[in-house]
Specification:
The chain is α/β, with parallel strands linked by helices. The chain has two domains: 2-156 and 315-347, Quinone Oxidoreductase, Chain A, domain 1; 161-291, Rossmann fold, CATH 3.40.50. It has eleven helices and 17 strands. It has helices spanning 42-48, 98-101, 151-154, 160-170, 186-197, 212-218, 229-233, 252-256, 279-283, 297-310, 324-332; strands at residues 2-8, 17-23, 30-39, 65-72, 84-87, 90-93, 112-114, 134-138, 143-144, 178-182, 201-206, 222-225, 239-244, 259-267, 288-291, 316-320, 339-343. The strands form four sheets. Strands 3, 4, 5, 8, 9, 16 and 17 form a seven-stranded mixed sheet that branches. A six-stranded parallel sheet has the order 12-11-10-13-14-15, with helices on one face. The structure holds NADP nicotinamide-adenine-dinucleotide phosphate (NAP) and zinc ion (ZN) (2 copies). One zinc ion is lined by residues 93-94, 96-97, 99-100, 108-110. Residues 41-43, 46, 159-160, 163, 183-188, 206-208, 211, 245-248, 250, 268-270, 292-294, 331, 334, 336 line the site of NADP nicotinamide-adenine-dinucleotide phosphate.
Length: 348
């Protein structure tokens, strides 16, 4: 075993603090990665605080990992020592079901193994995430990262990036389509960048009036403060798509009424409370309510390559790991511009 260190919580009510643990020795197909940066996703907060239930402790969160390969197993062909590498939300799946074979490991019919707060395919080994100095992952679940982009700004692509890229591709969002991005946080700001780069007309729907200038700089064409009733009224029956990235309870009915005939609202955010939907709000305009979960490994690589080609990166605030508990509090207030990223040098 290899000694590792990171930050963890021992239970749902504690704050994160230093934690020592072990990683497995790399097997024939494994890659050992020295973690340089790890993004901070709102899913980390939900899981640390057991807001979705079933959390496993101690928990080392983090699934937006970038770093350098420091060792490879004897059968590894995809990477060599010194390569840049990324790890997102998945580190394993059954690899044999129809979903896995189609490259949709996140929809594996058996189970997928999350990068943290999960149990490995052996049914017993808990996984620990990226708020740590190193990680060992099978090469099939490790992504190639371009040398062209700033590594700290690439980290959030591994979750916030792929989670927004995948539905935009699936629903073929592009020129001539009106897209609303609901919530301008980590996921939201990537949705704006991607949708704008794909040629769509992009509107940000936000509770924070002070994010307007940023929204426009990120590529949005319009900005609507959702607390302003008149501004909301002006976009009733307007959008083809709403990408909902909100992390807390909110009224879906109000937002559904902004979709035009046949419009689709895609849920990405996972508030702990189940939403209520009025049937008339859907049937009255043949509207659709859909959801999407991260993305498979093949599509994540496609997204990273798209970002390298179009110079798309996350807007980040780099923090030392000692600031992590404070960053969580700021995210809960919507005070995030637009992703916190931990500089893992600060662990030493
Ligand atoms: P984040 O950075 O904290 O951003 C969430 C944004 O939602 C906030 O900045 C805020 O934007 C808005 N918001 C917060 N509370 C609100 C409320 N009560 N009403 C309306 N808007 C509110 O979070 P994130 O990391 O982007 O994650 C967002 C959600 O997606 C989380 O629930 C996370 O677990 C989930 N997620 C899902 C997937 C997936 O595969 N589907 C993947 C990753 C994350 P404004 O200030 O603009 O209002
Ligand atoms: Zn995430
Ligand atoms: Zn499978």
């Amino acid at each position: 075993m290899i000694p590792a260190k990171g930050y963890a919580v021992p239970n749902a009510t504690s704050v994160l603090g230093p934690f020592k643990f072990e990683r497995r020795e790399p097997g024939a197909n494994d890659v050992l990665i020295e973690i340089l940066y790890c993004g901070v996703c709102h899913s980390d907060i939900h899981q640390v605080r057991n807001e979705w239930g079933g959390s496993i402790y101690p928990m080392v969160p983090g699934h937006e990992i970038v770093g350098k390969v420091v060792k490879v197993g004897s059968d590894v062909t995809k990477f060599k020592t010194g390569d840049l590498a990324g790890v997102g939300c998945l580190v394993d799946s059954c690899r044999e079901c129809t979903s896995c074979k189609q490259g949709y490991e996140q929809y594996c019919e058996v189970k997928f193994v999350g990068t943290y707060n999960s149990i490995g395919m052996d049914g017993k080994t808990p996984t620990y995430g990226g708020y740590s100095d190193k990680i060992v992952v099978d090469q099939s679940f490790v992504l190639k990262v371009s040398e062209k982009l700033s590594l700290d700004r690439v980290a959030p692509l591994l979750c916030a990036g792929i989670t927004t890229y995948s539905p935009l591709r699936e629903w073929k969002v592009g020129k001539g389509r009106r897209v609303a991005v609901l919530g301008l946080g980590g996921l939201g700001h990537m949705a704006v960048k991607f949708a704008a780069s794909m040629g769509a007309e992009v509107t940000v729907l936000s509770t924070s009036a002070n994010k307007e200038k940023d929204a426009k700089e990120l590529g949005a064409h319009k900005f609507v403060v959702t607390k302003d009733e008149n501004a909301v009224k002006a976009v009733k029956n307007y959008f083809d798509f709403i990408i909902d990235t909100v992390s807390a309870q909110h009224d879906l009915n109000m937002y559904l009424s902004l979709l035009r005939l046949d419009g689709t609202m895609i849920l990405l955010g996972v508030p702990p409370e189940a939403p209520q939907v009025a049937a008339f709000n859907l049937i009255g305009k043949r509207r659709r309510l859909a959801g999407s979960l991260i993305g498979g490994i093949k599509e994540t690589q496609e997204m990273l390559d798209y970002c390298a080609e179009h110079s798309i990166m996350s807007d980040v605030e780099v923090i030392p790991i000692s600031e992590i508990n404070n960053a969580y509090e700021r995210m809960l207030k919507g005070d995030v511009h637009y992703r916190f990223v931990i500089d893992m040098k600060s662990l030493n």
